[in-house]
Structure to design on (152 residues):
């Protein structure tokens, strides 16, 4: 009898809770396209515009700007922040996935752990005199102070 009561209670409470999940466009309200947003729960994303969506003119909310995986609006191989951990990752096309035809973004492009390949600059890495001179002066002054404090 307790199991039946628990099951009925769970159904009565869980039903309305699922119905109250906010829409993906509410997290991007008053934000620009590409801006970071927070999805339902501990999920992070970016505001991506669905160009095939038609926004009704009679409301103030842009229903075509959605808080989704940041890679849905980017190319394969670009840098991103993972939705679950907000750590750096890379956009990668997923196997066995089909994008919806009624949307303009790539739902099969997901942010996964990884790093974007670095490119080497033409001149190489170098510090200019304006950056290195103050640190050199600080180190020399510190060394001179330490030398003066030593007993002879």
């Amino acid at each position: 009898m307790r199991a039946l009561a628990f099951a009925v209670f769970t159904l009565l409470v869980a039903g309305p809770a699922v119905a109250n999940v906010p829409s993906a466009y509410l997290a991007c309200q008053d934000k620009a396209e590409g801006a970071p947003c927070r999805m339902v729960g501990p999920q992070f994303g970016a505001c991506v515009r669905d160009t095939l969506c038609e926004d009704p003119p009679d409301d103030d909310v842009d229903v075509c700007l959605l808080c989704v995986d940041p890679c849905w609006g980017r190319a394969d191989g670009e840098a991103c922040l993972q939705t679950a951990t907000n750590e750096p990752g890379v956009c990668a096309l997923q196997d066995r996935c089909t994008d919806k035809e009624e949307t303009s973004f790539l739902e099969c492009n997901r942010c996964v752990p990884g790093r974007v390949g670095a490119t080497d600059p033409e001149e190489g890495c170098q510090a200019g005199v304006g950056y290195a001179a103050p640190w050199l002066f600080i180190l020399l002054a510190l060394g001179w102070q330490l030398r003066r404090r030593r007993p002879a």
The first helix runs from residue 2 to 19. The helical segments are 2-19, 129-149. Residues 22-113 form one domain.
